């Protein structure tokens, strides 16, 4: 019982999760807040505008959760993912990954639609691929895939009409022209086909007939495969006849001839695959990608899936159709130059061709218009003699589009038009012929059952291009809807369609997909956007719509353990819809997520678990928590929120209302019918305040914004295009219309409230009018911080300095010169003393609050009239000089209103303005709304009219007149359901607004009700829906808990519809034999789904860069958290990768050095200082006297781009003819096309002059200009580098001269440091001798051409110039904390951590470098924590051991300290010694204990035994795997009879520890003495030859260094250079050894490494191992191949003879996708089979050559079992655990371990040959961890293969940690005792049994292992 209780307690704790602790939050105005947030709750943060709500919710909580999760992405992806800044907070613990759902519409791509945002398009792809029906695009005939059995059944039905006819089942043989017909007939006869029905020979091509008179074309022979009477034919015979005919035909069609009793023949085709039986048009398989416009498979090839193409817009070319050709109808030809010449040409040719030029364009005939547009029919390109037309003119311009002015002109007359190919459907034609559902359901969804043909709710079926006339004519008779049909329907219509579809779902999988679609559609309806269509582009949505769509997307992702931060989800929602939104948020919370909502709406507040009220005021007066507690007690709190909710304070009083009897004038809009408006008549009382409201989607914005405002704009003479309406009356009494929307008021930090409302101009005039200002000649412009001479020259009047921090947030520091006061000291000396209220400078005034300024300037009406409105709208606390970018949304909205109130525009008597506000309460608290209403009343009191589009009930109740639209949204809306005063509206039952107003009075008051149930008839659709039947987690695994991760119906790759449970917050191991599908489950489904769902919350640009995986082929994944992958990387890394770059410490060090480093002169060592312009001029005068030099300014320094705009600026603005580009002069008028992705340096020449005292003035002027354009840096070009035809006879030189950085001794100038100066991957920073490698490597150049593997393994020496430091002298001369960056990275992790902790930054330095320093220390601490404190940061990646590299990856990924995520790891034990393995497992369990779920793909026995949960996939590999064999605890796996893993755990491989081939005294040995490379300490190692040797040791002990870097290198050198001839008893001196002895017994050395076996898809296992040649010989020997004259080369995909010409034998083609990554898709010509049709027609044992390449090794072994030359290597592949690989699997898809084992098989196949043994002798093989990716059962096979290799007379050295391999060794070498500096010694050499008695990490592990795996002798007992 005690155990049971403790387990339940643990489960409950895990379910709740860790509390999110926030300590010391001081972001923006927050006052050092401390608070905890319970996971799984909904918290509302409210308070007045500017009180700090968003600072707490978004800038602190969300920012930290998002930042930590994004840290887990790759460095490349992170730079595009808008990683949030580190917030100002002492600490945040327990934060999960965070997703923000706010109102920012960041989507700018046309690819993003409502369907893609909500993932509904993904599900529609699935349902179309599964359930849609194909109708032929030519004839409309249903097309379905038919088997031979289906064909015979249909034949019986068809032929029965003619009684009992004679049937001939025929196939067609196509005989090529070059093949002898008689030979073909003989071949048919030999196969038993003697009855030829007909022969049809095509005429020969003309070229063939010229060569040979008897030449013919191809011949089609129709051959009877079987003949029978229908009544006498059994079903078996009929089916067999069709199968035989299909096997023989190449067309895919079978011809059936039925002859009735009267002798009449009837013919019909039967087609295999998706081929129309009527017209034989073939179609591709309906894969999901076929229905995706974001996939190259499905996207329209013309528009690439955008639905639109950019092209010539004739409406822009001829905008006014009332003009004549002579009068300028063709707009681009009106002007001067070439355009005017075109006008003259048109007039000249028009006169010749009798085209009327004095008639309006609209009255010209169609032929005349065609002449103008397309030119004369026989135009031949002669511009002088023929009329070319408008299109030819623009085609000519397109050819000159490389010129900027031409591109500008083209842009004026081009626009996006509907794609002519897909008509906006975005898909290829084939995807448009598939239809879903029945005709009845389709007609209902389209509204075709509505008898009114003019109804708004009727939609027409989409008719695609490419559809035959017959099919198009009967399109309305076809059943179902196409995908474009569904895209145009409102969501509410789609819901009804899919509800009908759900009732007829064909199977459970389809039902699940349709259920998911319905769920998401219901969510969208719940949040009030049911009127949207799935095809609506995301960028056209409003902020509120984006937020609500994102909310449903978040719910649809089914993510758990995630923090969702929402920004006012009530925005844009009618109160009727708020209950639904609350239900959606509750569902999100109940799924296991945490919600933090910034909100002011009472309906949302009252639905929360907790309320945090911020205040007490705004700005500096806010930032504190004034209430934190349950909703039930908030009304009793003495806070603004509590007072308003309790009714103690109210938003508006009846005073000031305009009553209906006071309405004397009306503005009337008649017959509005835009979008869903149903001929609406809108009446607005003038001189009053009107609220237009209604449920979401009812047509409010359309009526007010698109129709009314646009119509008035046009009436007042401004360009506008109003929506459809009949008339507008009463507008004459208005003076203007002003539309105030929610757009931002400005982003510049220079804009402030004083400037915005116009008060600052008068303030500056006051200062300019002072006596002192007049004496100094100061004007009002002097006191401007935006221009003039009075502002601070350092910060240009900004008051701060911006420090760019690259991948960290930019830092804004107080200007060091003006102290943040914006002005020069001289300007601030001028003060005013207004009315004796004290001396104030201009900076003092800007630091006043609005209230203080009103008091100070009291009496100056010009200032107070502008500032008073700010106080009136509640902004009295705002500083006059406060940047508007720092204002909250509510403050910005009120500032906009204050600017309106401050206007004093003269107007006609009695004529006011109409002010239209679009949801002005966005972001406003009750108290802010009260201030807003006072301001609106003030506008009305001035004689204006206010029209508000609003849902806020306080505003609606305070309005004089209400117009309520509805009754529903979308097609069901568009009507005025009620209008009148608030009291009148409350009494109208049909008005949802009236019901809400009545209920709202009960909410506001001390008793406190709520509005739940007021709209009971319109509750949440998803909530009211019956719970759908779905499989429970417990049905998969009985111990599953609710909230665990469930994977249902996984079909990805080879998975066979499996269902799996992954327990939440446990460590799960996914295991199984190699190739069984483990990684597919863990990474292809779990990781990709978790990350994809999180990435869907990001903007489209970020998603396109991060490239989330396509949706996995799985029916459903539930309970999944955001995922982090730590994948296996077997590459050792390149020469440029170091510990500091792998962990990104180098990036942060670069920032510290570039921003805070002290630069020294590399020559003199003196610190650099600033230098005056006069000193530079003197230097040039002295050093270049008499020389002709060019003074230039560097404009671009090592930046990528094409820079044509820069060249145009230089030519047109500066009048300069040349720029110096990458050291060469280029003409600015004929600027070369630069490589976009290559770094360029561009310099602007300002003057070329000969240095002499006479030209000093010109030199001073040129230097001044150069320093201005170069920002303090200029270039001096001498000799041949100067821009002159007569250069001075001196050495060409390019000198940098700087006013900022110069050596005080040698006067050398330096450019401003760039972060790339400290990067050895950039030519700016690397040492020019070694290119950043620190070593001289043969074949390594500046462009890094060649092969990485060659550079990595090539012999090298330390660079003589940089001494291995990698950087150039300038970079090495910059110090920080007393060290150069090279000296810092030379430290070990421990030493560097100590040094960084000792750095104390203060003031300005702390602001700049504090975050970078924290990042460095954090990463160093985690490296130390995983036991890598000994590593030097400069250590290069190739020298790292496998275990060290693995732990570095773990350190970089696990340092994010997240909770609630799912970590997915791929064999993390690779490269780890058993001792280090135990440490790793402990690390993973500590990760789990923090509240995370850990999923590990692993074969390691210890990991499996310690796991909480095990998932075993099998039983075999490839197509024989993919099944769930067992899951559960260790005991459950061991008890599973089908589990190979369980069997190996119960009955493991037996080992004696004794060698199969004992090492005797006389056994030949290879001996290395005095080995000293890296950490090896003059060790001596013996390698007995002809034995299986295992080299092991703890991670980092030097194994790979000894095996690869020393032994392999020395043997290669000795054998290649034939050094054995000079050997003596002392051996041969080595590069890294004192001597090498015994090498004479080795004739060859070979490393079987994990590098790829090829780089292209053409390289595959069959070609690499070599047996594909024998397979080709088999095919070439077939009768058919010989008859066709095919040799073996015909069956090679590497030669053009027989391969597919489209994909060139690769089986796939690359398709470029605009704004998406290029993708590889299956070649449509050969369907991935690599060969052309003729080659594939040749069969061997019923299989084509393409079929063979697609066979797995296991299946191929059965096929070729009788062919030893092929069967033997196949058996070897099977033996090493690669039976699942396909013979033709591209090498690029193979892992490093798979590539290594393929190489091993290749060698083993050779080793078995006696001829090979005689030729090669003894080979010394070196293998590095060959057990990578191998299951325990496959390790047993590998061991047998290694023994066979040794038995063949070879020596095998294996670097390995796997205890099974170690126990099988003949000789075991153990290095240690520790890693790094503490390693490098031989601890033991001998047999495994002897090792078990050693007190070393290896010995202890071996002892325990042999005890559990004892063989026939108890070794340990010995």
Structure description:
By secondary structure, the chain is α/β, with parallel strands linked by helices. It contains 68 helices and 61 strands. A 6-stranded mixed beta sheet has the order 5-16-17-3-18-19, with helices on both faces. Strands 24-27-28-22-29-30 form a 6-stranded mixed beta sheet, sandwiched between helices. Strands 35-47-48-33-49-50 form a 6-stranded mixed beta sheet, with helices on both faces. Strand 38 and strand 39 form a beta hairpin. The chain is globular. It starts with a helix and ends in a 10-residue tail after the last helix. Mean pLDDT is 84; it is low at 1-16, 905-909, 1023-1029, 1345-1351, 1810-1816 and 1912-1918.
Outline the secondary-structure elements.
Layout: H1 2-16, E1 20-25, E2 33-37, E3 42-46, H2 53-70, H3 75-78, E4 91-93, E5 98-101, H4 114-117, H5 120-131, E6 133-135, E7 142-143, H6 148-159, E8 166-175, H7 181-190, E9 196-201, H8 206-211, E10 219-229, H9 235-248, E11 253-259, E12 265-271, E13 308-312, H10 314-317, H11 338-352, H12 366-374, H13 389-398, H14 404-412, E14 414-418, E15 434-435, H15 439-446, H16 469-473, H17 483-488, H18 491-502, H19 508-526, H20 543-556, E16 563-567, H21 575-590, E17 594-598, H22 602-605, E18 610-615, E19 624-629, H23 640-646, E20 666-672, E21 680-685, E22 689-694, H24 700-715, E23 727-729, E24 736-740, H25 753-756, H26 760-768, H27 771-776, E25 800-803, E26 811-814, H28 825-828, H29 842-846, H30 850-856, H31 861-872, H32 889-901, E27 913-918, H33 926-941, E28 945-949, H34 953-958, E29 961-966, E30 975-980, H35 982-986, H36 992-1003, H37 1021-1024, E31 1045-1050, E32 1058-1062, E33 1067-1072, H38 1078-1095, H39 1100-1106, E34 1114-1118, E35 1123-1126, H40 1139-1142, H41 1145-1156, E36 1158-1159, H42 1173-1183, E37 1188-1200, H43 1204-1212, ...
Parallel strand pairs: 3-17, 3-18, 5-16, 16-17, 22-28, 22-29, 24-27, 27-28, 33-48, 33-49, 35-47, 47-48, 53-59, 53-60, 55-58, 58-59
Antiparallel strand pairs: 1-2, 1-4, 6-7, 6-15, 8-10, 8-11, 9-10, 11-12, 13-14, 18-19, 20-21, 20-23, 25-26, 29-30, 31-32, 31-34, 36-45, 37-40, 37-41, 38-39, 38-40, 41-42, 43-44, 45-46, 49-50, 51-52, 51-54, 56-57, 60-61
Helix pairs in contact: 5-19, 6-9, 12-13, 15-18, 18-19, 19-20, 20-21, 30-31, 31-32, 32-33, 41-49, 42-44, 48-49, 49-50, 61-62, 62-63
